[in-house]
Specification:
Elements lengths: L2 E4 L2 E7 L3 E2 L14 E4 L4 E6 L9 E4 L5 E3 L6 E6 L8 E13 L9 E4 L6 E2 L7 E7 L9 E11 L2
Antiparallel strand pairs: 1-2, 1-4, 3-9, 4-5, 5-9, 6-7, 6-8, 8-9, 8-13, 9-13, 10-11, 10-12, 12-13
Length: 159
């Protein structure tokens, strides 16, 4: 859990794992697209959730910061969910720093990362997949590991 700040002030509900469920028919108390930082310099953006999002899921954003689990053909900014940010909820997505990410296969330290056939997950394997730009493996993982480490610097896909 990271405590987030913006302009040296703690944001309301500033825990990076916080997920907001607005009252039916209302919007989030934090404006979508709001950016915040933790004490380690990691950067996050606030956005709307999508079904099946788990901690570590990779998503792409539209211009209103509505998320979609990352797949081939996605276009836009990429972020990593810091909580289970599902439909009708909002939460923080890391866009710069070192994140725990959902993965489908072994990774190699420093390796490029790609989309997979499983929405929202990464791999070092490029076969018929799309590279996530400005992101790379932050550690070598082997075996049946499903959470790995990915270093992010405002990752994008399809642009």
């Amino acid at each position: 859990m990271a405590i987030l700040t913006q302009l040296d002030m703690i944001l309301p509900y500033g825990d990076s794992t916080y997920v907001e469920t607005p009252v039916s028919g209302s919007t989030s108390q934090i404006i979508s697209g709001t950016r915040a930082f933790d004490a380690s310099g990691n950067e996050y953006v606030w956005g709307a959730g999508v079904a099946s999002t788990i901690v570590g899921s990779l998503v792409s954003f539209d211009l209103n910061f509505n998320s979609a689990l990352l797949i081939n053909g996605a276009v836009g900014l990429v972020g990593v969910a810091q909580g289970a940010i599902v439909v009708l909820t909002y939460g923080w997505y890391m866009v710069k720093g070192t994140a725990a990410t959902a993965q489908t296969a072994d990774t190699t330290l420093g390796g490029l990362v790609y989309t997979t056939a499983t929405a929202g997950k990464l791999s070092n394997t490029s076969t018929a997949q799309i590279q996530v730009k400005n992101a790379f493996s932050g550690a070598t993982t082997t075996g049946s590991k499903v959470i790995g480490t990915t270093v992010l610097s405002y990752p994008t896909i399809g642009i």
